[in-house]
Known about the structure:
The protein is α+β, with helices and mostly antiparallel strands. It is built from five helices and six strands. The N terminus and C terminus are likely disordered.
Amino acid sequence: xxxxxxxxxxxxxxxxxxxxxxxxxxxxxxxxxxxxxxxxxxxxxxxxxxxxxxxxxxxxxxxxxxxxxxxxxxxxxxxxxxxxxxxxxxxxxxxxxxxxxxxxxxxxxxxxxxxxxxxxxxxxxxxxxxxxxxxxxxxxxxxxxxxxxxxxxxxxxxxxxxxxxxxxxxxxxxxxxxx
Length: 179
């Protein structure tokens, strides 16, 4: 019985230390190393706010897509693909907006977003920064890249159809009596 209890205590101690290690958050250096170890071309970057990110180049479908991976040391790891600045909202065709919403619905974790202040359109994924494995990180990066690739015709602003403007209402005809 003592051996059984001893074995159980050892097993519990070992599993506790393993789960404590796997739930540790990645800091910025560890996150960069993980992205680098995925075999992607990487470089350092920083947002206007000063927060750092790793710029990773992911080849897919004959294109090289760039994604930003950030959040080392924080609760979430963000994978962001910048798609460009959307033309004035008045020029966005309704069909494009509908397709963007459909693409958001079809995505697993990633989604389109629009920065109201800058007009920048992005595709984003947020991952919990605890126990993140290289496989999970690569899967999320690939999901963003696939969504970029599969929806190019939607977010490529230069390929949008022309916006039809509504005809101005006809002014009411007035008469001044008699005829």
